[in-house]
Amino acid sequence: MIVATGIGAFPRSVPLLPHNKFGAPHSISNPRNRIRFPESKSSNFIPTNPPFFSIKAAASSSSSSDFVSDYAEEPATNVKFPTLLNLPGCSSSLSLIGTGFREKVFAIIGVKVYAAGLYINPKIIDKLDAWKGRTSAQIQDDSSLFDLIYQAPLEKSLQIVLVRDVDGKTFWDALNDAISPRIKSPNAVDETALSDFRGIFQNRPLKKGTFIFLTWLDSSKILIHLSNEGIPSTSEATIESENVTRSLFDVFFGRDPVSPSLKASISNGLASILI
């Protein structure tokens, strides 16, 4: 179902690592990064550089529109992502850990549709001690690590930035074509959640530069934010269904992600942190 949401408080962030520990997220524009829209079947891609963290700066943020001045550019699309983010409905500032892009393939020509960046509550890192010392490749291939990130009762948000105009129905149809096969036996709650999710995008033109935030609050609840003018002041809706929220996470971070470059960048970022 869809319910109204408010703006949560933003408590002090927990410093994790020195501010200058990381370089900017980096994905490589390479034919191996190209995937079929709406669902990827390719598992070959080139890993990307680790992200630039500014965890300490999050402690000074106090409103939903605050940013620090640091940005990381996704080079295939030239979209800039702030390294720290305060988003309505989240309990603390979130940190960028990787970026990537999504392509639609027409014949043999790849057309970039959007850039994406994953933000997490820094406290999630405290739950990943068992993966210290793992390489990027090991992290990327270990689904249990991403399962733990998903299951952690702390916020994580995927920011999507459109790099071309997309009809809302087309965007939803592509997303639904990836989500629905992952729900083997949808129940009434799942069907309602999918219907509500579809209603957010139906008959809604999405212009180049539109921000879409998919924010997991816990394992059964996500917030949807949309904005044509920067960070939204409120969330669009809340979707509640454990099967839908889990499947949505798997679309981007499972074994067959729709943006291999995004998952590779995140894996590199985690490997740089978990040393």
TrEMBL record:
Spans traversing the lipid bilayer: none
Superkingdom, taxonomy of origin: Eukaryota
One GO term (biological process): fatty acid metabolic process
InterPro entries: Chalcone_isomerase, Chalcone_isomerase_3-sand, Chalcone_isomerase_bundle_sf, Chalcone_isomerase_sf
GO cellular-component term (any): chloroplast stroma
GO MF, one example: intramolecular lyase activity
SUPFAM superfamilies, alphabetized: Chalcone isomerase
Domain Chalcone isomerase as annotated: residue spans: 78-271
Family that this chain belongs to: Belongs to the chalcone isomerase family.
Name of the protein described by the UniProt record: Chalcone-flavonone isomerase family protein
Annotated organism of origin: Lactuca saligna (Willowleaf lettuce)
